């Protein structure tokens, strides 16, 4: 996969993980390696969010935040490119497919005032959880939810 230009990575050397499993030391080129943090948004992780309204056990999802934070910290320390994807629909919902509208009628509605409209770009619930918040130098890619890369520049 060719990533969009990321000139700050051009001078990086290879990265080595000394304790990679199952085979021990693993070296990879930092200039074409990235970590992609997919859909770590409040709508999916909070007890009153969209994920919980679907019956998901968000405690299990929240348990993954710590390991994801450790992976993100390691990627940043290694100088890797970091991308964050966010499932989000435009405020007028023009990008909400008929099938998704039928199967997920809550999208675009407000069920919890503190989170705003469900899965709508710019609403508080659409924010990435603070523990995994992107840095200003990291790219955030919004998608209408047919997959983390559907209808994005990473498709």
Structure description:
By secondary structure, the chain is α/β, with parallel strands linked by helices. The protein contains 5 helices and 7 strands. The strands form 3 sheets. The chain has a 3-stranded parallel β-sheet with strand order 3-4-7, covered by helices on one side. A two-stranded antiparallel sheet has the order 1-2. The longest helix has 13 residues. 22% of the residues are buried. The N terminus is likely disordered.
Short description:
With 155 residues, the chain is α/β, with parallel strands linked by helices. The protein has five helices and seven strands, in the order βββααααβαβββ. Mean pLDDT is 84; it is low at 1-11.
Strand and helix map with partners:
Layout: E1 14-20, E2 24-29, E3 34-38, H1 42-45, H2 50-53, H3 58-62, H4 65-77, E4 81-87, H5 98-103, E5 110-112, E6 116-117, E7 139-143
Q: Could you name the ranges where pLDDT drops below 50 across 5 or more consecutive residues? A: 1-11
Class by alpha and beta content: alpha/beta
Q: Any idea what the shape is?
A: elongated
Order of H and E elements: EEEHHHHEHEEE
Binned strand content: 15-25%
Helix content: 10-25%
Q: Would you tell me the overall average pLDDT? A: 84
Strand order in space, largest sheet:
3-4-7
- The tally of strands reads 7
Largest sheet: 3 strands, parallel
């Amino acid at each position: 996969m060719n990533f969009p230009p990321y000139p700050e990575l051009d001078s990086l050397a290879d990265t080595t993980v000394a304790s990679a499993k199952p085979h021990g030391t693993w070296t990879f080129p930092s200039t074409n390696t990235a970590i992609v943090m997919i859909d770590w948004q409040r709508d999916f992780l909070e007890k009153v969010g969209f994920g919980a309204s679907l019956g998901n056990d968000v405690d299990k999802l929240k348990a993954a935040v710590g390991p994801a934070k450790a992976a993100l910290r390691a990627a940043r320390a290694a100088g890797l490119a970091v991308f964050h994807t966010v499932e989000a629909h435009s405020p007028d919902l023009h990008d909400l497919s008929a099938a998704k509208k039928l199967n997920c009628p809550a999208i675009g509605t407000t069920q919890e005032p503190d989170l705003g409209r469900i899965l709508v770009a710019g609403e508080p619930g659409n924010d990435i959880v603070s523990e995994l918040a992107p840095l200003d130098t990291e790219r955030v890619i919004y998608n209408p939810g047919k997959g983390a890369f559907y209808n994005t520049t990473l498709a």
